[in-house]
Amino acid sequence: MKKIAVLTSGGDAPGMNAAIRAVVRMALHNGLEVMGVQRGYAGLVNGELFKMDRSSVSDIIQRGGTILRTARCLEFKQEETRIKAANILKAYGVDALVVIGGDGSFMGAKLLSKLGVKTIGLPGTIDNDLAYTDYTIGFDTALNTALDAINKLRDTSTSHERVSVVEIMGRDCGDLALYAGIAGGAESIIVPEKGYDKDDLCRVILEGKANGKMHNLVLVAEGIGGSNELAKYIESVTGIETRATILGHIQRGGSPTASDRVLASRLGARAVELLMEEKTCRVVGIRNNEVVDDDIDEALAMERKFDDKLYEIAKALSY
Length: 319
Fold this sequence. Notes:
This is ATP-dependent 6-phosphofructokinase. The protein is of the alpha/beta class.
């Protein structure tokens, strides 16, 4: 192992820069050369590689987004595109590729590995939807961003005695909404894993008003969606002023929390260690605060388990 490359792919996540920094500096520490790939798989196919040194990753650990930038690349689903990418890596003398991203990015790494490319995956996504790891890089920062917004919305909801319906990102995973709901003291948390009944929700809101409740905070996971329509329905049934707020991509930005910076550093360093040990086609994660690595095929095949216990706790604490 003499030269590696690193790229970020898919949606950006706070902490990606910390992961890039860890990969680059740990590789250099072990005498490896490092190439950065700009704009994810799209940049790889276009040959957008450049040499990185220690100064390339100076002053980035506190920055959100990704200095390597990212892009979608639908063409990567085509085998001829992946063959071109593998040949470009070979032309640059790259022995292994570190991919930072979510499940789609990992699928790309998996398919490249079938062509003989040595790959390691790092979980960079705010959605926390990768089953093999307890937490993904960016989840904690996105959670705190959502919580900050919720705290502000609660103030105005109380002042106006209204219902606030807040839509949280996470795709089909309800973790962001669940954790934000518990931390923000939401009255109702609606996630894809559990679903909900609109009329039952309205009943709870009316019962709260009868008991003197000044406001209601309803969190809706992105996988459920329809927040504007839900807000209109709640107002039509209860007669209580209701407003919907879709937080959107604000949750992807911002300086990463200490937790995400440390997680990214631990996982990035382990990725390079695995390459030095000639262990490839694997993904790195964290379980029970221990850094782990799994075969990429096995990791992608794992079934994600929703935290039912935490959801029940959230329900018990909301009344």
